[in-house]
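Before a colleague's protein record goes any further, I have to sign it off. Would you go through it and say whether the fold makes sense for this chain? Take the sequence as given and treat only the tokens as open to question. The record follows directly below this note.
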Amino acid sequence: MSGFQENPVELPCPYEDLTPDPVPGCPKCAELDATRYKARKRREFAVAVVASQQIRHHEQGHHA
């Protein structure tokens, strides 16, 4: 053993894109965000995840 400790490995956060932000001014994004919020309050996390996925995929259709 050399007596030296290697630096820790820093991994990226794998869940950083699980809560995408809705696009401001988009009624579809606002609707999906409200669905996600209500589902979280009801502890229906599967519904919240689906809403987040729909927001993320819907964002790809926005062009500023």
User: Anything to note?
Assistant: The mean pLDDT is 83. The longest helix spans residues 27-41. Residues 20 and 56 are 6 Å apart (CA to CA). The helical segments are 27-41, 45-59.
